[in-house]
Amino acid sequence: MSKFPVLQTDRLVLREFRKSDALAVFDIFSRDIVTKYHNAETMQSIEQAEKMVAVRTSLFERALGIRWGIALREQMDVIIGSCGYYNLNKPFRSAEIGYDLHPAHWRQGIMTEALTAAIQHGFGEGFFFHLNRIEALTCVDHEASAGLLKRLGFEEEGVRREYGYWKGRFHDLRSFSLLREDWAT
After folding, report:
1. Across 18-147, where does the E strand assignment appear?
2. Neighbour tally for 116: CB within 10 Å
3. Mutual orientation of helices 143-151 and 110-122 as an angle, nearest 10°?
4. What is the pLDDT of residues 67-118, one digit of tens each?
5. CA nearest 113: which of 71, 78, 79, 157?
6. Mean per-residue pLDDT for 139-148?
7. Does residue 82 belong to any structural domain of this protein?
8. Disulfide: which of 9, 75, 85, 172 matches 95 by Cβ 3.0-4.6 Å?
9. How far apart are CA 143 and CA 133, in angstroms?
């Protein structure tokens, strides 16, 4: 891919991150309720958000993945969350998907809508390579995230014991996957 793909749904625009998004990113990640299940500390400064925006922007530039900023169509300049692919494994034709959303927008179907567009793109012709498998990991007690993945057709594969390490301790993670053939049917 040479040009960053902008995705649109009925209510959303999934677009490239901009430096000006740092304030919105800080608003999301400065909340303990958001970082509770995340492998990042709760942000204390705008500089941390600026660094996250830079990292997310560089993924696409370096062909290591893609992270879309999620905005409502009527407010395209305000990011309310993000989603995208990382840990691209071209030989295995797989990638991991991740996502986050401002709590003011939880339980409104926004992430389902955003991930549906991201999955369509991943299994489409415009992805980095012919993707066959999308993987997702959630903390074992993060039922909202597990429910979202199941609604999208992901199958739970099991628990990866102490697979993650952040915030000074190990975390068991539930593993989910979605195959191209499952999405197409």
Report:
1. 66-72, 79-89, 94-101, 133-139
2. 18
3. 50
4. 999 999 999 999 999 999 999 999 999 999 999 999 999 999 999 999 999 9
5. 71
6. 95
7. yes
8. 85
9. 22
Burial environment of residue 11 by CB neighbours within 10 A (0 to 12, 13 to 18, 19 or more): middle
Note whether residue 2 is domain-resident.
no
Asked whether residue 17 is domain-assigned, the answer is yes
Query: Is 127 within the bounds of a domain?
Result: yes
Per-residue burial over 46-64, b if 16 or more Cβ lie within 10 Å, else e, is eebbbebbeebbebbeeee
Interacting residues of 125 by C-beta distance below 8 A, sequence separation 6+: none
Residue at token pair 């941390």 = 48
91, amino acid identity: P
The length of the chain in residues reads 185
CA distance 162 to 170: 5
Domain range for 75:
7-184
13 exposure class (CB count in 10 Å sphere: 0-12, 13-18, 19+)? buried
CATH number at residue 179: 3.40.630.30
Number of domains within the chain: 1
Most distant CA atoms of the chain, gap in Å: 45
